[in-house]
Amino acid sequence: MPTKLVNPMNETPARVAAPPVRMRELKGTTLGLLDISKPGGSFFLDRLEKLLKERFQIQNVVRASKPTYTKPAPENVIEQLRGVDAVIEALAD
Amino acid sequence: MLVVLFETDCPTCQMTIPYLNKLARSVPVIGISQDDQASTERFKEQLAVKFPVQLDPDFSLSRSFDVAFVPTLCLIDRDGRLLQSHFGFDKAALNAIAVRMGCGPVADEFDGQPASKPGCMSRHLEPKTDGDSPVSAMRSGRGSPASIVEVSDEDDLVEYCFRAFGDALPVVPPTTERVDKMLSGTTLERMEVIAHIPPCYGEATVEKIAANAVMAGCVPEMMRILVPLVRAVCDERFNVHGAQATTHFAAPLIIINGPVRHELGFACRQNVFSNVARANSTLGRALQLILLNLGGARPEGIDMSTLGNPGKFSYCIAEHEEENPWEPLHVERGFQLRQSALTLFAGEAPHGVSEHNARGPEQVLKSICYALATVWTHRSCLSSEAVVILCPEHARTIHRAGWTKQNVRDFLFENTGVPLRAYENAADAEGSQRTSNYQEILIDGDRCYRKFASPEAIKLVVTGGTAGKFSAVIGSWAAGPRGSEMVTYPVP
Fold it and tell me: How far is the alpha carbon of B107 from chain A, nearest alpha carbon, in Å?
């Protein structure tokens, strides 16, 4: 007779979200740059912003920072980025 | 009149109700439930709510009070003007409201509950979801039954469980019979949801906790600790979401205090950090399996720890209160000596400090100061905390000289620093960028930066064998509200 086991693993249904449509070009878009607040993040994102504007004619960049890298972004940070075409989240130690 | 907005599945709201019942004996209190009628009725019955409760199905009341978190207490005068509001649980705030309403204080400092505890996000601000989402399941307070896995006789049961469940160690197969037996250790309903475990927010029903406890080798009586332990590890202040996903070494260290140590056989003598007792080893392992299997921070995936920590197999100690000449940890954190409690600290592995020859407190503690100065990395100041494990012989040497626990903490605080010369030619090194915030002090004539932000950043625990002069320092992960805070929960 088979042994019956109580499944000890997570069986909570995951929320499924379809990925957004891939961007075809960057020219004229508004991008969000989210710094997770690690010490070197701003250096990296400053450089990235410069390159995006110079090479890809990004129209606008919205910069936001999480208050701490240890926790998910709070609602007010997500709110700052609402409406942009895409977000690049980055860190650098 | 006092209006309280609450959710039925919010542990902080549940903690607040008995105090509001006390208030309701002499002043008007009105509750506003953010949940449906059935959950609210069950809540009222379970917690013996002594004041009228109104439902808020479209959250219009919640919006009109502009609540962000629950519980929120709003003190309103006869003309409907808001006099005072407070969110979360806070004994001082509850007492201030009681006094303002003309009653005596309702929250005793030593009644077993913590001084304060944050609440949950107000229901109307929660993300909108459909169907059987974690959030809608949270609303009901009841979870889904675990599926039953059938393993044929041809399969090796232990090998099957090794492959399918757990980590890199074999586990006890969670057969339906064993899980039923484990559930006999609690009066809670099998489907009750205790928490949703970050970072994947798996539903920790009593049944799922029991199945993982079986795998870890726990006895059914351990459910008494496991339920508050799961609540504690999901306390927002502890921030297990970050601690489980970080590249740092952190693992949740469980510290057990009070009579439950002896009642369930926790070891607090020699080898307290290792393989000495079933209670320590299996409770620590059960927590790790729960975090892994329900939280989803798997060591080959979301858990990104660069080097890991042997404590991720099991990391559970008990304080040797009988050898502690001062008040034990849980008493310091607001509980009574006769109560049992568990404390969680997101810590590194212990760093040993040997001192066999010192005759006085200063020399013993100086050795510990040098270990403390290297927590995180030596140039980094003010951002870390540490647990100092004093072995009984060291504690005795210090106490014999008449020192209090506060004396010990103050001495460690005042004498732990990083010499200024460590920052020379090291402008790019970690910790060097924030020196403008550091405080310069003199330690033995050397100019140093103070290592810790306050004496309270140093937590003291006395434990271990009575022979040997070996203490230890356990460094924190990112500490405080920007990282992980130590939490202590009562054990019933």
Answer: 32
Instruction: Tell me the three state secondary structure of residue B362.
Output: helix
CA nearest to B235, candidates B119, B332, B136: B119
- 3-state SS assignment for residue B52: coil
pLDDT tens figures, B197-250: 999 999 999 999 999 999 999 999 999 999 999 999 999 899 999 999 999 999
Q: Hey, is A86 helix, strand or coil?
A: strand
Q: Cβ contact (<8 Å) for A5 and B478?
A: no
For residue A15, give the chain B residue with the closest CA. Answer: B133
Rounded CA gap, B485 and B238, in Å?
Answer: 5
Q: Do A11 and B147 touch (CB under 8 A)?
A: yes
> How far apart (Å, rounded) are the C-alpha atoms in residues B159 and B41?
46
Find, among B454, B450, B449, B457, the residue nearest to B483 by Cα: B457
Does B211 contact A75 at a Cβ distance shorter than 8 Å? no
Contact B224, B194 (CB under 8 A): no
Using a CB-CB distance cutoff of 8 angstroms, which residues of chain A are in contact with residue B173?
3, 5
Q: Mind listing the pLDDT tens digit for each residue in B12-54?
A: 898 899 999 999 999 999 999 999 999 999 889 888 899 999 9
Tokens coding A50: 């410069």
The answer to whether B207 and B179 have CB atoms below 8 angstroms apart is yes
List of chain A residues whose C-beta atoms are within 8 Å of the C-beta of residue B69: none
- The answer to pTM > 0.90 is no
List, in sequence order, the alpha helices (H) in B167-277. Answer: 176-183, 206-216, 223-233, 240-245, 260-263
What are the domain boundaries of chain B? Answer: 2-126, 153-346, 349-475
> Which residues in A lie closer than 8 A to residue B240 (C-beta atoms)?
none
Rounded to whole angstroms, the Cα distance separating B43 from A19 reads 39
The CA distances from residue B245 to B200, B232, B309, in Å, are 11, 18, 13
Provide the strand spans (E) within A1-93. 3-6, 30-35, 60-65, 86-90
Task: Please state whether beta strands A60-65 and A30-35 pair in parallel, antiparallel, or not at all (unpaired).
Answer: parallel
Class of B2-126 in CATH: alpha beta
> Which among B80, B156, B112, B81 is positioned nearest to B15, based on CA atoms?
B112
Interface with A, mutate which of B136, B144, B149 (most A CBs under 10 A): B149
